Amino acid sequence: MGTRIDIIGWGGDGMAIVNAVVGVVARHEDMWSVFRPSSEVSRLNDAVASTVGGGGASRCGADCAQGGPGLVVSEETDCLLRDALALAEATGGAFNPLIGPLVAAWDVKAMRAAYIAGAPLPPAPSERVVEAALRASSWGLLSRVGERRWVMGTPAECAGGVDVPSPRLDLGGIAKGYTADACRDLAVAMGARGVLVSVGTSSVSVFGTRADGSPWRAGLRDPHGGPTSVAGVVELPAGGMASLSTSGDNLGPLGGVRADPVVGRAAGPVVGRAAGPVVGRAAGPVVGRAAGPVVGRAAGPVSDPRARETRRETSPGGGRVFDHHIIDPRTGYPANAGVRQVSVVASSGVLAEALSTALLVDPSIDISDVAARWTRETSAPASAKVVGLVRVEQG
After folding, report:
1. Which of 34, 130, 309, 381 is least buried, going by the fewest C-beta atoms within 10 A?
2. Are 295 and 177 in contact (CB under 8 A)?
3. Are strands 339-346 and 333-334 parallel, antiparallel or unpaired?
């Protein structure tokens, strides 16, 4: 998926640990990659599309349908899906695994490519198209109907004559944190006495210390600087929390001053090097995506979308200029929180990922409340703390 996994540590059989970690990554991608037709996520998405005539869109006036009798998934997928719904609820909609229709509506990939090339940005979608995408992006369409059995409903209505697209599940927003924790825990079980796992540079999990007894250190990238610029350093574990996630805006405010952005680069940590033996690097593909469009809940029809829309204007060469390429899925429009990057440490990689994602579009979220809800849902003690927040530079 265009990124990498690094594992650094000491203790245990290094090559055996590396091989085992590669196996974990491969298994997770087989289950969760939206690019693999046989993955459980793809099969859930295909089940929805097949119920709406195979075209991926529900017809106006059609009755609400469900994705067949449901799909029985693996225990790990079942766990991750339950986590995703719990965190969507806990964050009040700032995190959501069904962001796909909104990302497609805004054509974020084309927006990035045009910005880098210095070409006019693609036109903004109409209000009707955004409203239709909002309906398809509601995380309430995903439901658990039995033991490890899941279905996705399809929106019943059209939006102002525009066909509502098919919902699309994507677990990339939390899968990297889950994978980082799983690889770390496996390394420890196999004898590692200190280990750091970095997935795509934006999700880091650690155990113990470096070989010389010093703590693991991760540098937080400066989004206002070059690709290797560091804005701060975090020592891990921090307060007993050993999972770090960073979500960020790779491009900055669109239409502003260029800062030589790197397309597809995760706005994550520049991981410090171990002072002891290097265990190795997992060369397999990574689960999830580099930090890009933020996922979040579509809260239903927007009463006044223009009031939530960021400033836009016609560029000299045609097309549109937007303040932000990060979509706030609660409104369906580009985020307007004035935040470029958020780093969170937490007791769980999944929790850290969801919070860093949610805070990017809404920095007012009460992370203590989210952690408390997470504890009630999982029956596991949870804690989290913001360790880095970079706002948009003024002027």
Report:
1. 381
2. no
3. unpaired
Q: Give the three-state DSSP class for 320.
A: strand
Closest CA to 101 of 150, 43, 159, 143: 159
Cα–Cα dist 187/42, whole Å: 29
Q: For residue 220, what are the contacts with CB-CB under 8 A and spacing of at least 6?
A: 230, 231, 232, 233, 234, 246, 269, 270, 341, 343, 387, 388
pLDDT-derived band at 313 (thresholds 50, 70, 90) equals very low
The Cα 323–Cα 15 span in angstroms is 47
What is the residue-wise DSSP string for 143-163? EEEETTEEEEB---S-BTTBP
**In this structure, what token pair is assigned to residue 60?**
């106006």
Q: Shortest CA distance to 361 belongs to which of 330, 392, 388?
A: 330
What are 338-358's pLDDT values in tens digits? 899 999 999 999 999 999 999
pLDDT for the residue numbered 19 = 97
pTM for this prediction:
0.80
Burial class (CB in 10 A: 0-12, 13-18, 19+), 189: exposed
273-283 tens-digit pLDDT = 333 333 333 33
Place of tokens 């990498």: 4
CB within 8 A of 277, min separation 6: which ones? 9, 10, 14, 211
CA 307 to chain centre: 26
- Amino acid 69: pLDDT: 73
Of 193, 210, 179, residue with least CA distance to 349 = 179
